[in-house]
Fold:
Amino acid sequence: MKPLRQKLKYMLEFSILKKSKKSGARLGLLKTSHGVVETPAFVGVATKASIKTLSTEDVERTGAQMLISNTFHLHLRPGENLVKANGGVHKFMNWKRPMMTDSGGFQVFSLGFGLDHGVGKVLKKGEERIIEEGTQPHTIKITEEGVEFRSPIDGEKLFLGPKESIAIQEKIGADIILAFDECPSPLADYEYMKKSMARTHRWAKICLDEHRKHEAKAKPAFAKGYGAAKQALFGIVQGGKWEDLRKESARAIGAMPFDGFAIGGEFGYDK
Structure:
């Protein structure tokens, strides 16, 4: 699939080609400055701007339409400034098709409560430990401003919050970037989840404000070649296993002027 050649009216365009009357399932086209993605699509995980064991050419031969890299890990190594100096993530990894970056919100879980309890986003039967509101992970600290980490590489302290995540992602230069959030643990109780979700909503607003502020200073049109002058920002719905919280989060995030939306969270015992 070749990169899109025509000039887009917006930084991201989505159209629905067909919708099932039975299930509501949709076929669509997601247009970016680096090509068209036929949806639904499997997005390959290129955490550090590469797919493990495969060259970029190998990945292209699989027919992959889009890849996603990770803000936290690229910040650690090689650093967003080096990625930017090399033309942004597309040129850095020689990938001419669409790219996304995760915000680093998943590492709030994986390097926090996930590491503490040895759990993933889906629990095994019999897991009964509960994380109550006000509890902190052992190796990171979650604050109203963001999250204090220690680098898994050398133990150095680092801070990542909504402002920092957006700034890093803008330097990395993917077509679609994500708002910084707290990916919750499936062991969190209702009160923890509710407070965490509300914090994620506050961070979402900060991410929007930061992105708008930086976007106003950016070039008005897409840059030629690999990097794009503008990026689409997606909000993330949280709420965990509780339906009322998921609905509340969908209403709150859905009311914000994001370019698109992601479904985040944990699954409890059942996907």
